[in-house]
Amino acid sequence: MSKFAFAIFIISFIFCAVAQERERVVVVAHLADQPVSLSKGEIRNIFMGGVSESNLTPVEIASGSHIRVVFNTYVIGLPESRIQSYWAQMKFSGRNKPPTSVGNVDEMISYLNENEASIGYLPEGVELPDSLTVIFITD
Amino acid sequence: MVSRFTLLFIIESFISFGATAKTSNDLQFSGFARLVGGYLSTDEAKYEGYNNSVSFSEKSLAALQADYIINDYFSLSGQLLWHSDETRKSGVEWLYLTYQPNASWQFNLGQIRTPFLKYSDVIDVGFAYPWLNAPQQLYSSYLFSQYKGVNARYLGSFNEVAFSLEAYWGNYSDEIHSSGTAFDVTVDGMYGGVVEISYRGFQFRTATIHANDTDTDLTELDPLIQGLRAAGFPDTADILDIDGGATSYLFGISYDSLNWFASAEWMSVKSDLDILGGIDSFYVTFGYYFDEVLVHATVGSSRQSLNDIENPIPVGIAPQLDALHFAVEEVKTYFPTDDLDSLTLGARWDFRNDLALKAEVSFLKGKEGKTSFFELDVIGSDFDRRATLYQLGLEWVF
Fold it and tell me: What residues pair up with B290 in beta bridges, in sequence order?
């Protein structure tokens, strides 16, 4: 194997390894009746305080949680500091309030299970109760 | 000037309150505070109240907000603000009733801050924006910052496009400070609207304010105005007797991403008031995130084109006319002619979710012969309208 081919192999391996390690988030909802299909952009709008035809109410996990960071990175597309300053602007201008916040993944599952028409996010692979439907999975 | 000890005591009291604030389902307390120190490189003028000694009394403030949920549709919000700047009133900043029949519609009634620029209704909440000193060319205080009246807001979406429409109407009455001069200004029937459209990281924003019946009370000028009328110069008297209308338009665009953002706003003011007409201002800002640290650069500019007040009074004919001529000339120097270019470099470190430390340097380049947002210590000084403003601050929300 030439040095060039070896270098390509190593670089490819590193990229594959990084891709393998990237965590995935599932966006789940407690749907009232009809199935709902939402794009990443529509989910972003819901979690940034916009209204949606789906009428789903967003629920977030409190800051400091790893899965929150992953969700903000791959779905919202903003750093935590920008999200905090955005909600300060919305709150103190009287325009909007941040989503209901829960403490951890278990509380998220419990909250979504108990509240119809709610939407939240969880790490991929978490066992879901029958009431919850996966709406979106990050790449 | 408020002593630093008083300032620290008040902010510390708010912090203590914030730490122990109780929240019930019906009544919620929140608030914000900022401690900002600044220093201006020149001793020939002030800018934003700063001179060439370190001051914490220009931008520091603290506020407490209470939101009371009356029922599923109605809530009441009030905000008490304490400001260290003597030209800003402390007291009730907001007080309004909200009616929200559903997620899309919101109606407010009461004392409300005017939603014109991207951050104008949260200009006291420094945590909400990147700078310590928002671009002065647009965010200066003489554009009707709040009103008593009503507004209606509609939120909607179409696939990935989210939008909001807002319209408002009300009356404005306040003391406005500009370039060291204070004016009592009242506006009857001020109205305007805001349209915001968001698509992924992009946001487009346009807004307008119409203040057609503006009345400015400059009582110090009454003897001069009467003298001009008596001497046969009614047109000049009318210019100084500031009553008329003003209309402002705003266009803004921004893009936010995980690593960087860019934002720009352009504002135009048209007015039949000679001292206000023809203002065009803009800023462009770019920021990059290094983890919790944001570094940003902003270029700002303003031009005021229609404020050349003609002085038709001849000199050398009679001592009384000479006195009138020079009185008009002196008054002209007090009216704002705010041509200013600026470059601001800053950093913001969000070391906690509710606390941010900011540092900022603004290079200011005005025009000789114009006020350029400076407050001159000596009228007619040969100050070249160039200075550097250094600021350091702490922003907090709870």
Answer: B293
User: A100 CB near a chain B CB, below 8 Å?
Assistant: no
Assess if residue A93 is contained within a domain: yes
- The answer to whether residue A98 is domain-embedded is yes
pLDDT value of residue B311: 81
Task: Say yes or no for a CB contact (<8 Å) between A73 and B258.
Answer: yes
Domain ranges for chain B: 4-397
| CA geometry: angle B164, A90, B152, nearest 5 deg | 40
| Cβ B61 vs Cβ B33: under 8 Å | yes
pTM for this entry:
0.86
Task: Provide, as residue numbers in chain B, all residues whose Cβ is less than 8 Å from the Cβ of A50.
Answer: 155, 157, 162, 198
- Look at residue B17 in the predicted model and tell me its pLDDT: 52
What angle separates helix B319-334 from helix B222-230, to the nearest 10 degrees? 140
Å from A25 to nearest chain B CA?
A: 17
Tell me which fold the domain B4-397 belongs to.
Answer: Porin (2.40.160)
- pLDDT surpasses 80 at A110: yes
Quick check: A84 contacting B, CB < 8 Å?
A: yes
Q: Please give the residue of chain A at the shortest CA–CA distance from B120.
A: A93
Nearest chain A residue to B255 by CA: give it: A78
- Residue ranges of chain B with per-residue pLDDT less than 70: 1-25, 141-143, 176-182, 242, 273-277, 306-309, 333-336, 377-380
Which chain B residues touch A119 with a CB distance below 8 Å?
Answer: none
Residue B238, both tokens: 């009318």
- For residue A82, list chain B residues with Cβ-Cβ distance below 8 A: 256, 261, 289
Which residues in chain A have Cβ-Cβ distances shorter than 8 Å to B259? 79
Residue B160: which of A42, A51, A79 has the nearest Cβ? A42
What is the residue range of A129's domain?
Answer: 24-137
Cα B31 from chain centre: 20
